């Protein structure tokens, strides 16, 4: 492979620096003198081959190759003008594994070299070989690059030893192909977002900590590297409590030709914090004024769910508009309805609160939500709204209540023809909104709402925030003409932009890209199906029943499961006729067929089986008694981004009907 001249020069320079560092030239001179003195006759000439043999015999060539592993990987690996950032793990921080590196780009090498003081796991015994145990996983996001560490067993001092290579460059001002210097890197204010996830022995995930690492302190170090002890704080109600410390080492590669003084770095960071604080202060002053004006319209507005700020997982109040941003899914999701299905299969979990006392509010940043793979209704609504905005729709998050006054959030889209569509992010269902006119005479038939929403206090997206100031906040009576200020009181778009636009403040994390699924749907489907067969056989054996499986009948259930998922994604039913015809042919005259489909968003076969047994219809099939009983089960796993999945299971049986 030929290299461009500038890359070849850069490569030669790196190798030369490494050779000088190891004093290779001095060692070669010593070997040369020793060889001439001991092994050659006075008249004999020393050839290059003889010198190389002598160097190899003394292990000098092996030493050089070991030290040059990182550089040789650059020469061996494929070089592109815009390489995909990749992460690699190493047991020894000095020995780096292969990764795509462009010598014309600047990188930040972040190493996590263990943790300590995770006191919650102080009494945790060391896991035995092969034993399933709870694990920690560290997830990182930096400027559209995402990384994930190897899972390590939960312990007081977790054994993190991972390296992540983060590319640092400017996308704007024509600087995308130029290596970033110290001044350019100082102007990049995006933090490294670190999220620590705990996975228990049942596969359930929980959010342990979320931390924004200010990495630019490395720019003021003399040798281009620095060590940081990162203290991680808890989340939600424990956001002021330390959960542990990570030892982090940062290194700039290639080394900067000219470093900055620590004073310059500290001054820049202080100015950014000051600017951010001033913007947030001005927005808070404006928000208070807007709220006073809103209450003056009608005193009853005080009881409406008009939410201007929301706390994130770290207990920091952020404007709600900052939780939404147009998000493109690349080629991972093709349609808005497929995006709604993806959000729907992410798990639902309300934020926990110690000692009860109702719901603790916690709106997660997007990375924390995606890494945990579950969240509250607000997290689902924010993600769905962001995806729909990415598809070019006019989408808003709605904040209001469901039945019995339970607070809830859902998504609304406004069509160009005035059609208002509600999207329930927890189920994927869509509802067309047709307002009821209370002034119509009783003879006029009014539309009957199918949606579960009762009241609405406000709507917002990344650019707009509107408070409902109609006489009634009942959803079925609301008119969603958002341009009518007599019905919807808007906030200043400039004020929102000052604190919610990308890059407006250093306190707002940029949105991470979605990651493709790492689940093999066929393998996972087979594994769950085999586990369910074993569980059914054991259950029937306990009841004194034999179990005979019919593979062909199991296979015939596949089209039905595919049809169910297609209907969930598109709201269109297809393929049912072929499935029914195939079943009729497979079931002989005088026999009865029963089938029970069920849907899950997790892959735990034992948990799914226990849930199925709670259904009398499913239990009737699994515990079927009769003549010539044949059982069937089919599992189909449909994968989505972020390793989310929809798991469809169908149990079936056929038997001879005996009167």
Automatic annotation (TrEMBL):
Segments forming domain CEP76/DRC7 peptidase-like: 361-491
Signal peptide: none
Species: Sarcophilus harrisii (Tasmanian devil)
Cellular component per GO, a single term: centriole
Name of this protein: Centrosomal protein of 76 kDa
Coiled coil spans: none
Residues of the CEP76 C2 domain: 100-257
Subunit structure: Interacts with CCP110 and CEP97.
Domain Centrosomal protein of 76 kDa C-terminal: residue ranges: 519-656
Record keywords, A-Z: Cytoplasm, Cytoskeleton
Main location class: cytoplasm
Keyword check for Cytoplasm: yes
Role noted for this protein: Centrosomal protein involved in regulation of centriole duplication. Required to limit centriole duplication to once per cell cycle by preventing centriole reduplication.
């Amino acid at each position: 492979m030929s290299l461009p001249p500038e890359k070849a020069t850069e490569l030669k320079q790196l190798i030369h620096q490494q050779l000088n560092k190891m004093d290779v030239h001095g060692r070669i001179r010593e070997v040369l003198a020793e060889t001439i003195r001991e092994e050659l006759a006075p008249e004999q000439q020393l050839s290059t081959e003889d010198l190389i043999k002598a160097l190899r015999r003394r292990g000098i060539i092996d030493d050089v190759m070991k030290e040059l592993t990182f550089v040789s990987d650059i020469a061996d690996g494929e070089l592109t003008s815009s390489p995909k950032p990749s992460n690699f793990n190493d047991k020894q921080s000095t020995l780096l594994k292969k990764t795509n590196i462009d010598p014309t780009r600047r990188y930040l090498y972040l190493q996590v070299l263990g943790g300590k003081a995770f006191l919650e796991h102080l009494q945790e015994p060391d896991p035995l070989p092969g034993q399933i145990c709870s694990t920690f996983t560290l997830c990182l996001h930096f400027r559209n690059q995402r990384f994930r560490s190897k899972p390590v067993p939960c312990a007081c001092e977790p054994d993190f030893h991972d390296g992540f290579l983060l590319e640092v460059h400017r996308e704007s001002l024509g600087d995308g192909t130029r290596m970033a210097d110290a001044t350019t890197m100082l102007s990049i204010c995006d933090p490294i977002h670190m999220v620590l996830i705990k996975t228990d022995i049942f596969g359930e995930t929980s959010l342990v900590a979320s931390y924004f690492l200010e990495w630019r302190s490395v720019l003021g170090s003399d040798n281009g590297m620095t060590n940081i002890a990162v203290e991680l704080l808890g989340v939600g109600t424990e956001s002021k409590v330390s959960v542990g410390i990570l030892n982090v080492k940062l290194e700039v590669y290639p080394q900067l030709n000219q470093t900055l003084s620590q004073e310059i770095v500290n001054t820049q960071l202080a100015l950014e914090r000051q600017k951010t604080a001033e913007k947030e202060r001005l927005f808070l002053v404006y928000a208070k004024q807007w709220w006073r004006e809103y209450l003056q319209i009608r005193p009853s507005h005080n009881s409406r769910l008009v939410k201007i700020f929301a706390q994130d997982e770290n207990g920091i109040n952020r404007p709600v508009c900052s939780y939404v941003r147009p998000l493109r899914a690349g080629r991972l999701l093709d349609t808005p309805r497929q995006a709604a299905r993806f959000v729907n299969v992410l798990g639902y979990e309300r934020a926990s609160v110690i000692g009860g006392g109702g719901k603790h509010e916690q709106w997660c940043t997007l990375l924390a939500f995606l890494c945990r793979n579950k969240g509250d209704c607000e997290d689902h609504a924010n993600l769905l709204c962001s995806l729909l905005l990415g598809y070019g729709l006019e989408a808003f998050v709605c904040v209001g209540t469901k039945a019995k006054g339970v607070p809830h959030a859902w998504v609304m889209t406004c069509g160009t023809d005035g059609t208002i569509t509600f999207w329930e992010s927890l189920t994927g269902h869509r509802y067309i909104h047709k307002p009821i006119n209370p002034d119509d005479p009783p003879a006029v038939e009014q539309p009957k709402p199918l949606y579960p929403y009762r009241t609405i206090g406000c709507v917002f997206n990344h650019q707009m925030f509107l408070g409902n100031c109609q006489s009634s906040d009942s959803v079925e009576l609301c008119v969603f003409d958002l341009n009518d200020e007599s019905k919807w009181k808007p906030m200043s778009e400039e004020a929102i932009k000052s604190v919610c636009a990308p890059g407006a403040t250093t306190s707002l994390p940029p949105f991470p890209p979605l990651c493709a699924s790492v689940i093999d749907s066929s393998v996972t489907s087979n594994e769950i199906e085999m586990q369910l067969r074993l569980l059914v056989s054991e259950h029937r054996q306990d009841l004194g029943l034999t179990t005979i499986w019919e593979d062909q009948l199991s296979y015939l259930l596949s089209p039905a499961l595919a049809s169910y998922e297609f209907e969930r994604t598109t709201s269109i039913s297809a393929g049912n006729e072929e499935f029914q015809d195939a079943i009729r042919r497979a079931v002989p005259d005088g026999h009865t067929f029963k089938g029970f489909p069920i849907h899950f968003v997790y892959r735990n076969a034992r948990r799914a089986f226990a849930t199925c047994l709670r259904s009398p219809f499913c239990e009737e099939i699994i515990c079927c008694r009769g003549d010539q009983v044949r059982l069937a089960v089919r599992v189909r796993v449909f994968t989505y981004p972020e390793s989310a999945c929809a798991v469809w299971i169908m149990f079936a049986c056929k038997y001879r009907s005996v009167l």
